[in-house]
Design a protein that fits this description.
Layout lengths: L2 H9 L4 H16 L8 H11 L23 H16 L11 H18 L1
C-alpha cells in the first residue's frame, strides 16, 4: 500500500468506503500513471482489465466516477484525492466544480488544514 494512502487515510480518519476509493485511485495511478500525453484507448483497456465497470471515460482525458452513499463523506474524499495527487504525483492544480458555495468553502477550508497536517 502506498505510504501516502496510509498517511492521508489516518490523518483524515477516512471511513472504509472512502479509504477503499482512495486505494482504487492509488492502484489506477500505479497502472496508468497520470500523464498529459496518455493514450486514452490504451489507458481505458488497462483500467478496465482490473475494474471492468469502467466502460468509457466520456471525455478527452481519463475521467473516473466514484459512487458512494449519501452521508459517507464525498467532500472529504475529494480532499483526500487532491492531497493524494499532490503528495504522490506532484500535481498542484485542480479544477473543483461544486453545486453550491457551501461545499466549495468546506472543501477549500478542509484542504488548507490537510496540507498543513500532512506537510
Amino acid at each position: 500500500m502506498n505510504r501516502h494512502v496510509n498517511a492521508i487515510a489516518g490523518r483524515l480518519s477516512l471511513r472504509p468506503p472512502q479509504r477503499h476509493s482512495l486505494e482504487i485511485l492509488d492502484r489506477i495511478t500505479e497502472i496508468v500513471p497520470p500523464n498529459k500525453a496518455a493514450e486514452l484507448a490504451a489507458a481505458l483497456e488497462i483500467i478496465r482489465s482490473e475494474y471492468p465497470t469502467v466502460t468509457d471515460f466520456e471525455r478527452e482525458f481519463p475521467s473516473l466516477c466514484f459512487a458512494l452513499a449519501t452521508g459517507v463523506g464525498k467532500t472529504r474524499l475529494m480532499g483526500a484525492f487532491i492531497s493524494y495527487l499532490h503528495l504522490a504525483h506532484g500535481m498542484n492544480n485542480f479544477f473543483v466544480m461544486a453545486p453550491n458555495l457551501t461545499i466549495y468553502k468546506k472543501l477549500f477550508i478542509g484542504r488548507r488544514s490537510q496540507v498543513s497536517m500532512l506537510s
